[in-house]
Amino acid sequence: MTETTATIDAAPEKQNRTLRQLVSYTLIGGSGVALDFVVFLLLHNLTGMDEQLANALSTTLGIANNFVLNALFTFERRDRIVLRFLRFYAVGLTGIVLTNLLFLVFTDGLGIDANLVKAGSLPLVLALQFVLNRKWSFA
């Protein structure tokens, strides 16, 4: 088998691996999203906590949940765990910042309910974070 043939043969395998990782990341992300959203609703709606602070706290819990599960199942990387967590958390901070910007625009600026803005931000944040975590946190 030539080097070119080996590269071509490896391409579908790499695509399949990426697809499996995306599916696993999405499923695990779902558990983190559920945790994040429930904690956000409790903090914001039951305690009256400001939506941005509630978002930071709830997202942090979701990040920790997702890091552990993704390290074990999606990317199967257990080396340099502290460095990987710090990178994963930094990526998670992009989600916090993005969601808080959306709160500023849609909740504070346009008067849209914070619960709807939080729910609407989740798919956008998931996509951004998958790319960043795959390329940086678990590379």
Automatic annotation (TrEMBL):
Judging by the UniProt lineage, the source's domain of life is Bacteria
| Membrane-traversing stretches | 22-43, 55-73, 85-106
Q: How does it sit in the membrane?
A: Multi-pass membrane protein
Is Membrane found in the keyword set? Answer: yes
InterPro entries given in the database record: GtrA_CellWall_Glycosyl, GtrA_DPMS_TM
Sequence ranges assigned to domain GtrA/DPMS transmembrane in this UniProt record: 25-138
Q: Name one Pfam family in it.
A: GtrA_DPMS_TM
Q: Which UniProt keywords apply?
A: Membrane, Transmembrane, Transmembrane helix
Localization, UniProt: Membrane
Name where it mostly resides: membrane
Q: Which family does it belong to?
A: Belongs to the GtrA family.
- Return the PANTHER family for the record: PROPHAGE BACTOPRENOL-LINKED GLUCOSE TRANSLOCASE HOMOLOG
What is the designated name of this protein?
Answer: GtrA/DPMS transmembrane domain-containing protein
Q: Which organism is it from?
A: Streptomyces plumbiresistens
